[in-house]
Amino acid sequence: MLQGWVIFITSVAYLGLLFAIAFWGDKRADAGRSMLNNPYIYALSMAVYCTSWTFYGSVGRAATSGLDFLPIYLGPTLVLVLWPYVLEKMVRISAENRITSIADFIASRYGKSLYLGGIVTVIAVFGILPYIALQLKAVSTSFSVLIQYPEIVMPRHLGRVPLFQDTAFFVALIMALFSILFGTRHIDASEHHEGMVVAIAFESVIKLAAFLAVGLYVTFGLYGGFGDLFAQANHIPHISELFHSVGSQGYAQWSTLMVLSMFAFICLPRQFQVGVVENVNPDHVRKAAWLFPLYLILINIFVLPIAISGLLQFPEGGVDADTFVLTVSMVNEQEGLALFAYIGGLSAATGMLIVATIALSTMVCNDLVVPVLLRVRWFQSRFSGDLSAFLLFVRRSAILLVLLLAYTYMRLIGESYALVTIGLVSFAAAAQFAPALMGGIFWKGATRAGAMTGLTLGTLVWLYTLVLPSFARSGWLPTEFIEFGPFGIEFLKPYALFGLDGADELSHSLFWSMLVNIGAFIWVSLLSRPSDLEQLQAGEFVQKLDSPGAEPVTVWRGSASIGELQGVLRRFLGNVRARNALNDFAQRHDMALDPHAEATPALVSFAERQLAGAIGAASAQTMVASVTKGEVVSTEDLMRILDETSQVIEYSHELEEKSHALEETTAELRAANERLKELDRLKDNFITTVGHEFRTPLTSIRAAGEILSDNPDLPEIERDRFYSVVVAETQRLTRLIDQLLDLSKMEAGNLEWKMEPLDLGGTISAAVAAASPLAQAEGVKMEADLPDGLPGVFADRDRLIQVLVNLISNAVKFCDPDHGEVRISARINGGVVAVDVADNGPGVAADEQETIFERFQQGGGETLTNKPKGTGLGLAICREIVERFGGRIWVEPAADHGSVFRFTLPIMEISPTA
Amino acid sequence: MAKEPANDPDQRPAEDTPGGGTGKIGPLSVSLFLFATMMFLPPLVMLGEGDADLFGLPRIYVVLFAVWIAVVGMIYLIAERVDRSGPPEA
Are the C-beta atoms of residues B62 and A66 closer than 8 Å to each other? Predict the structure, then answer.
């Protein structure tokens, strides 16, 4: 017989076991052998997602609307598919910033905003409170049902249970005690609650085992396996239709539930607590990513069979589907199984109660109470001492308050609601955090104003389209405004806002609230300017994946003495912790802790992070700012630091460019100087050479003149000879001066050029004709080999002839004295025509091939003993002329012996003869 | 109170934090996410509906759990069997 005392003793024993496990977990952790360093514990603790709503409610939902209990569990699976991007990223960010709750996370991301943290906390408390109430109600109901054994009586027929006979009340108190004992051990909320997490993991095992036990009993004990169960159900149409379609409540609801559960899985404060805050190693996420969905599959496999068997066992109805897990065992007189199922349900409820209250109390303390108290002056003056005890007191009070409020809510709302609806209302509230949260870690442009507007508006829509109507349905508000809209305004009807009709109320609410939330979030973010600290935090959060090992940016610049920082830390962390933390830091950074010395920016940042773990990022920033003199971070400062840095970088960059330019200029100058020196040398050479060239004929003339004047009676013949020397040398001088003038005119660009289209063949023939007497005089054989159809060139005819005559006379001068031969030829070569003047003389030495085109350089060089045969200017002039015509002149050795002087001229497009 | 190295970001040596680059895991995860989302949402999920049975069980029931198990299997393979130290995607 299941006596009341048996159930009671079992419950107390189970809860006692829970305490013992938590105590053991904490002891182990204190001994340095933490259980949390185990991914399986982490994955199991995540199963706090499965509350009594899963345990009892899923079956209830399956019994009434079929398969659409499933999306609630498919959603988390989908989120965990993206574990490297979502959960692991959040874990890394939180570890580095000592995040204590989802409110802290969002506040910290958006510039450590006090207000944002406060708003998130308020929404969370009001959104989650009904959910906590739901757990208490489940405990109360299951106890009431079980205690009637072997009768099956629904609680609503039993009348109200007096307060002090209500199991839920005691469970609430016991859970408050548990949370206070194991949830507020440390002042630093970012530290891990080892005992609590181990207990939650244990509970996850118990509830899974209990549910599987009931499922196995039903499927294989009551019926002959899945096939038999479904076959029997198939005969009853209203049961059969439950498991052949996912759209019994509409596909919109199916999809909505999936989206909602995806958001809830990361945004529910208790999921954030176990999944992010309690994580000790980001690597654990990897294992949990497949372990936790596996858990979900296991706990869901028997939901439908239990629901069907309940419907088959109680064909006349009258039994709440939410109690099938218990009543199916009870009606078949399985006392032990019923008790186990009850314990499973209790563990599902208590797990959620513990984690949710701890998470909420941390948020209430860090993001609501502390920020307010820090602003109240009388509080500051009255409580100037150690505040760590006070903080713990606030958290413990918050735990008790949350649980008692939830209990009150549950007593008030009574039996007016089905379990599942309350859970979904809470999910929808938590989903409002999703845009700010996800946008915060993926979009740098998201701003505080955007997050605040989106959150607030989305929550208001949630309130209007989901919560207010549910109040009305509970009879607390007149129902007219649901049916006819407020003040009779039709398009404001909460279940059909702006005339959007046809969807279920949940999809309707989620659609409108998300539209408003995401829309406002994006638009206001785009239109508002983030503060500097916001920008900094945005970078920290969004880029976490790119540089996981990077130290958090040190932003503090104002001056605070180490003593003052110690004071602040001591106030909030307590003496021992503060000292340990600072000593630790000092040791690592090898510095002394002189209370009067100025704290380094790194130390100030360190202190801020330590504080953040205790009182949240936003308050920590405020507190450190209160002791840091000067413009603290005064984020303008921060920006200036950044600015200065970037300016320095820019300056140094400019400097580098300038020095580079300077180097280039220096090189250019050096080259110019070299060139000038060279020119100077050339000028000296030129003068020397010109002087020398003038002197030779002058000496001859003077000698001849002196001879003629000293010897008046020189024979006629002799006299004529000397006269002819004078004439010849004078001619040579004149030629020299003419050429010099020509050359300098050409170089100075003063010479007049009569450029015109020329027939090259004709011009060459004219030059050959002009030079032939000279060749004949020297006895040199000269021949011209000119092909037909030589092209036209664009040149000055006289100058071109001058070049040719010059080359020919050179060739005649230097060719073989006995069998002299000079050969002139021309041929087309690509776009140019090449003219060759070849001789069979001694040739030009290789090292002189370039220099002979310079002024006063003649073949034979220094070693030439013969008297030079020319002025030394001819080839220089030729080069000037040819280059002027756009051609090139050079010398190369001939095939056998002698040399070939070759110049090219560009071909004119249209031959002038054509 | 116990303090593990991993607990305290200030004490966590840099080499303890595994590389943030997701290597091939990132693209694989995203594609699996798209696949799973499509399989679980209308219209694809509607293909499993109907009165026909599979192994004597309701077809949609079998299909949903089979896909679910397959997805979890894929997560397992990606998380545990794919080398993470590949070059981070651009």
Answer: no
Cα(A5)–Cα(B75) distance, rounded to whole angstroms?
A: 47
Tell if the CB–CB gap between B30 and A82 is shorter than 8 Å.
yes
pLDDT tens figures, A177-222: 888 888 887 777 667 888 889 999 999 999 999 999 999 999 998 8
User: For residues A509 and A494, what is the distance between their CA atoms, to the nearest angstrom?
Assistant: 9
DSSP string, A427-445: HHHHHTHHHHHHHHHH-TT
Q: What is the dihedral of CA A715, A716, A722, A726, to 10 degrees?
A: 150
Task: Note whether A536 and A555 are within 8 A (CB).
Answer: yes
Whether residue A67 and residue B45 make contact (CB cut-off 8 A), yes or no, is no
Q: Which residues of A touch B57 (CB under 8 A)?
A: 226-227, 230
Q: Shortest CA distance to B6 belongs to which of A292, A198, A191? A: A191
Say if CB A518 and CB A510 are below 8 A apart: no
- Two tokens at A462? 């949630």
Give A276's contacts (C-beta < 8 A, 6+ positions apart). Answer: A87, A90, A91, A94, A99, A105
From A629-633, A684-688, B15-19, B40-44, the region with the lowest mean pLDDT: B15-19
Q: Does A292 touch chain B (CB under 8 A)?
A: no
The alpha carbon of residue A327 is apart from the nearest alpha carbon of chain B, in Å, by 24
Residues A73-92: tens digit of each pLDDT: 999 999 999 988 889 889 98
Is the peptide bond prior to B18 cis by the omega test (within 30 degrees of 0)?
A: no
**Cβ contact B20–A548 (<8 Å):** yes
Using an 8 Å Cβ cutoff, are A573 and A614 in contact? yes
Q: Can you give the three-state secondary structure of A800-850, one letter per residue?
A: HHHHHHHHHHHHHHHCCCCCCEEEEEEEEECCEEEEEEEECCCCCCHHHCC
CA A551/CA A548 separation, integer angstroms: 9
Angle separating helix axes A194-216 and A303-313, nearest 10 degrees = 50
Q: In A, which residues are within 8 Å of B85 by CB distance?
A: none
Name the residue with tokens 């020329």: A758
CB contact under 8 A, B57 and A226: yes
